[in-house]
Amino acid sequence: MKIPVVQKVLEANERIAEENRRLFKEMELFVINLVSGPGAGKTTLLERTVERLKDQYHFGVIEGDIQSTLDAERISSKGASVVQINTGGACHLDGNMIREAIEKIDLGALDVLIVENVGNLVCPVEFDIGEHFKVMLLSTPEGDDKPVKYPLIFHESRLLLINKMDLLPYVNFDVEKLREESLKINPHLEIIEISCKTGEGLPSWFHWLEEKVKKR
Amino acid sequence: MIKMHELSIAQNIVDILNDQMKIHKLSKIESVDLRVGVLRSVEVESLSFSFNVLISGSPLEGARLQVEEIPIGGRCMECGHQFTMEHWLDDCPLCGGPRVEIVSGKELDIVAIEGD
Questions:
Q1: Which residues on chain A are in Cβ contact (under 8 Å) with B1?
Q2: How far apart are CA B45 and CA B36, in angstroms?
Q3: Which of A51, A126, A195, A213 could hold A166 in an S-S bridge, CB 3.0 to 4.6 Å?
Q4: What is the DSSP string of A16-83?
């Protein structure tokens, strides 16, 4: 007997993500899902961001790591409320992990929640967690071939931060080519060039965040 | 155990099949038809491997995944021509227009199950 069943495979996750999204809305919380490959500088970006804006907003950070609490300790020392999720091998965070993690923070006290996903450009894109926007972080030493190799993350992100601009003279990274290809995949993508080391471009990122928090 | 998104996806399929067995009062499932868009970056072999590991020793044991891969479909925003894209950077093959909207390739759906 053949039974037609049209069902999204990830429907269960999408349902939970929608519940998270409703909760974030009720709490007037702005939520970012921060995605990058390993070593692009997600944790350093968060340190700089919390340092600079902690008098304006109360930040919550959910740290997804396969193992270790190193990143959580770094962020926590800057003054954000941090919850660590050790995925124990999983390559991404999903809606349910976020639902469990937010039970451990006082959401009502927060203005901005940033979810630092597991360093990976493929799997985190598949799993909605209920965020407002995905923000992709790409660093210049990783190379400018990422739009062709990992188009979906470019398509699904609202903002692309190109980090480690201070290393541009030493690496093969064509910023113009990257911009052109990224915008071809996603004409709505906003792009900001930054260096968390020198501070270049960070004011534009802070401004982007402030604008979005205002409209939350 | 190495986890990958194929394993999470396989687990979701298993959950859906267990529900469907109850709903339709099936004692076994022979095959499952899936539509998977290439933009999902799903390795079919990894997915089948994960699925087989998950169902081994369960009432679903023996069920086969039949995957139809859906290519990226684009529609030219200039002339409206629809075509299959090699990747997202392709221009319209008809008019050369650079603005192309993605209309398919992100599917991840179960479309049918066969069982008794």
A1: 89
A2: 13
A3: A195
A4: HHHHHHHHHHHTT-EEEEEE--TTSSHHHHHHHHHHHHTTT--EEEEEEESS-SHHHHHHHTTT-EEE
Backbone angles phi, psi at B35, to 5 degrees: -115, 120
pLDDT along chain A (216 residues), means of 10: 91 95 96 96 95 96 82 86 84 92 93 94 91 98 93 94 98 96 91 98 98 92
Q: Does A213 touch chain B (CB under 8 A)?
A: no
A151 touches chain B (CB under 8 A): yes
Whether the CB of B114 is below 8 Å from some CB of chain A: the reply is: yes
Separation of alpha carbons A7 and A211, rounded Å: 37
Q: Is A147 on the interface with B (CB under 8 A)?
A: yes
* Residue B5, φ and ψ in degrees, nearest 5: -70, -25
> What value, to the nearest 5°, has the Cα angle with vertex B6 and ends B1 and B7?
40
ipTM of the complex: 0.84
pTM (two decimals)? 0.88
Contact A85/A65 with Cβ under 8 angstroms? yes
Please, what is the Cα angle at A15 between A12 and A21, to 5 degrees? Answer: 145
Per DSSP bridges, beta strands B72-76 and A159-163 are: unpaired
If you measure CA to CA, which chain B residue comes closest to A92?
B5
Which residue, among A117, A113, A118, has the nearest Cα to A102 in the 3D structure? A113
